[in-house]
Specification:
One of its GO terms (molecular function) is oxidoreductase activity. By secondary structure, the chain is an alpha+beta fold. The protein folds into 2 domains: about 110 residues, Uridine Diphospho-n-acetylenolpyruvylglucosamine Reductase, domain 3 (2-Layer Sandwich), CATH 3.30.465.10; about 220 residues, Alpha-Beta Plaits. The protein contains 13 helices and 20 strands. An 8-stranded antiparallel β-sheet has the order 15-11-13-12-18-19-17-20, with helices on both faces. It has a 5-stranded antiparallel β-sheet with strand order 4-5-9-7-8. Strand 7 and strand 8 form a beta hairpin.
Length: about 450
């Protein structure tokens, strides 16, 4: 598998790549060409937000050193290429855990900041960016800018969730949270339809650190949206030992066709509901299985076949969710497209410091579809339409094909990022969306305070 491929594998992989040290030399020397660079973390973005077809990607993974850690207050400083898995393993013996983790631990620190990732506890902790104390940002003016809520604030706000467009994040300081253990006490509650889920969701958030729902996307009629609500809290008397990331299972080769067809999905959903739904009462689970279940199967994205997969993640405001979320599921059902991974969770009111952060109050629905060409693209456009009409947004770092108009409707403040975008940095996503919306104003002078 190409080292510089996007996770969805529907976008051609990067052809040109340089090391972080080479990019640093270009930037400090003032010789970086316009639109020529983009940091590449570990390629877990699904579309083209981590690609720069017009230029070169910068491999940040060799910058993987944890520089310091304060075991009293949980403040950790690390290079941008450090994996979240390494941060978890380093801090676990001291009783600390990242306050926000996405669905995979195989993301870099710089990538987590650039995408302002969220987890199962947005209602309690907000986004990853809410816990960033500061970072060092190298721009094409040759300077390393220290950015925080009190220093270079415009760059701080633009870089969090800015998809790597403001410069090269070299290192960052983040504040971890103290936990009684890494294990999680989990409670599983089945619900028969979306109406039941919405009746449960707010109370689950109020009572638990973590809450997320799995949806049986193939169920229709009065069972539309049935699923399981997983709620959890760090166990009082669990383990402080980090578990080895990933598992023994893997998809060793690329199947010639997607194996995630409707009969398979129907059987899988039935088995999953039976296995997970029969759990009675709170029970303890390891953090790997609770937070990162798919990390246990290496290269699981190969299951979608050689054409890859599209992921669609939307957020719908609270007042529109009871109508729009069923409409999204019904559209996929009508199109005959089954989603292997269908996740629904509630975002709280904690505001991210990032200008282009995706989370906002409401409900977020994630669907995965094998790439079946025009049929799938038509469905995704319909999902965009429903989302925008409801006043919602489509997640850019999960996207590989949204229109410029959908992006602008989802992020009306996008020009605030463009005013401080470093002229040496560009992504294929930005070229596909923002570049088509009007004159570009990226520059260095606008970032000065």
């Amino acid at each position: 598998m190409n080292r510089f491929q996007s996770f969805g594998r529907v976008i051609p992989p990067a052809v040109k790549a340089i090391t972080a040290s080479e990019a640093i030399a270009l930037l400090k020397g003032g010789t970086a060409r316009p639109d020529s660079l983009l940091a590449y973390g570990n390629g877990r973005s699904y579309g083209d937000s981590c690609q720069n077809a017009a230029g070169t990607v910068v491999d940040m993974r060799p910058m993987g050193k944890i520089r310091s850690f304060n075991a009293e207050n949980g403040l950790l400083e690390a290079d941008a290429g450090v994996m979240l898995a390494d941060i978890i393993a380093y801090a676990a013996p001291f009783g600390f855990f990242p306050p926000v983790v996405p669905g995979t631990q195989f993301v870099t620190l710089g990538g987590a900041i650039a995408n302002d990732v969220h987890g199962k506890n947005h209602h309690r902790r907000g986004t990853f960016g809410c816990h960033v104390e500061s970072f060092a940002l190298l721009r094409s003016d040759g300077r390393v800018h220290t950015c925080s809520e009190t220093q270079n604030t415009r760059l701080f706000w633009a870089t969090i969730g800015g998809m790597g467009l403001t410069g090269l994040i070299l290192s960052a300081s983040i504040r971890l949270m103290r936990v009684p253990s890494l294990d999680v006490t989990e409670t599983v509650t089945p619900f028969r339809n979306l109406a039941e889920y919405f009746d449960l969701a707010e109370a689950a958030d109020a009572a638990n650190e973590y809450a997320v729902a799995w949806i049986d996307q193939l169920a229709g009629g009065r069972n539309l949206g049935r699923g399981l609500l997983f709620a959890g809290n760090h166990a009082d008397h669990g383990s402080h030992a980090a578990q080895k990331p990933g598992g023994r299972l893997s998809v060793p080769f690329q199947p010639p066709l997607t194996v995630l067809n409707r009969p398979f999905l129907k059987a899988f959903n039935a088995a999953y509901r039976w296995k997970k739904g029969r759990a009675s009462g709170p029970h303890m689970v390891g953090y790997q299985g609770f937070f990162f279940p798919l990390d246990g199967v290496r290269d699981w994205n190969r299951l979608y076949g050689p054409a890859g997969l599209f992921q669609h993640q939307s957020v719908i405001p609270d007042e529109a969710a009871r109508e729009a979320v069923p409409a999204l599921l019904a559209a996929a059902h009508r199109a005959g497209q089954g989603s292997f991974l269908t996740v629904l969770k509630r975002f709280g009111a904690i505001r991210s410091p990032g200008i282009l952060s995706f989370p906002r109050p409401g409900y977020t629905l994630t669907l995965d579809f094998p790439n079946r060409g025009g049929k799938t693209l038509a469905l995704l456009a319909e999902l965009d339409r429903i989302t925008v009409a409801a006043g919602g947004a489509v997640n850019p770092y999960k996207d590989a094909r949204m229109s410029a108009e959908t992006f602008a409707a989802s992020f009306p403040d996008w020009r605030r990022l463009e005013t401080v975008r470093d002229p040496a940095f560009l992504s294929s996503f930005w070229a596909r969306t923002a570049y088509r919306l009007g004159p570009q104003r990226g520059g260095l002078a606008e970032a000065a305070e």
